[in-house]
Amino acid sequence: MVRKKRFALSTTQIILLSFLVTILLGSLLLSLPISSASGEAVPYLDALFTATTSTCVTGLVTLPTVSTWSVFGQIVILLLIQIGGLGIITIMSGLMLLLNKKMGIGDRLLIQDAFNLNTMAGLAEFVKNVLLGTLVIEGIGAILYMLVFVPEFGARGIWISIFNSVSAFCNAGIDIIAENSLCNYATNFLINTVTSVLIILGGLGYIVWWDVLRVVRSRSPKNRRIFRHLTLHSKIAITVTAGLITVGALLIFIFEYSNPLTIGEMSLFDKIQVSFFQSVTTRTAGFATILQEDLTNASAAVSIILMMIGGSPVGTAGGMKTVTVAVLICAATATIRNKSSATLFGRRLSAGSVQKAVAVAVAFLSICTASAVLLMATSNVSALDAVYETVSATATVGLSRNLTATLNTFGKLLIIITMYFGRVGPISLAVALGSKNESQNVIAEPTADISIG
Asked: What DSSP assignment string belongs to 263-301?
């Protein structure tokens, strides 16, 4: 008697479904009258859009968060942001550890795939550190925010501070302060600093945190050369992040210097801090201290590039990721210089890493291109606005040139799908929907040279 093969989901498919189920449950809760500030149910499509942008930690909204949702609705949104930033698998694993339940091999595989880790060693400790580190950083951020928001909003400032801290660290970009995001605080040094630090820490990734702490603890007071002892991953993530923020801020400062709609009439110091914040927030955070539609075309182009690159792997940020772009640039440079392999910080990059980077970039750009073309074909929008919107959705940034609220039904559905694809990852989606790996014993196809370039 032949047993029927049981249907089983792969770990990647489980991760994809966990996000989808979270979005659907969130949309049902947000569509209830109790979630609305007016007491009348919000249209389901807008509830679905809000649940998606929260779970995918994007930040694009069709309805203003501060005036549309009740306290209950805002709590639902905050929970979706936290779940989306950490991942439902991480949270469930944390609950298992809290209840002293051992993690099976299936649970470990889920966590490994959820964080795209290369090993299953020490996963239980990794989950504990992620949850504890997130709680500590978000708590500190909330306390610092209270220094501004409590004097201004009273007791409500406590809730605003908690919400903003979680949203900033998870790179969600959703706030409950005003309908113009953080534009009222464009020159507030504390708000700019706290928000930027939370965004950067969330975008660097958990692996970088632990690596830096490991090196700091292992170094003697007389030998504090921390950077040279970091792993290659951490070196790339930190270097590219610092470089992109610095170059991005400099270019935006130059392009917006005389623009009266943005920073043209500000003091030199305020011009610098607003330019810096714009460079940071485009790295998948989505908060805005200046209206994006008022940017010059040059600054908008710089912002699009920064959004496409995004943050670093194993964190709360989106985009193609800093490490991916660094690998692509090094591989291209090695080819141009006729070198057999690409190297970074004295280490040779594996062929597998280069291939994965190429696949991620192609998948990301394909989603952005298809989404932008479809949006332009179905809506009366300019090419710049369409590209800005779709790149922001794919990279889970959340910045918009005042387009999201004006989208028609098809446009909203398109951005919902784009945000979901951008959050779960183009490669994860391809693996989940694809067939099993082909047998390694098949005869390889003949090799042929072709002309490129």
From this structure: TTTS-HHHHHHHHHHHHHHTTTT---SS-GGGS-HHHHH
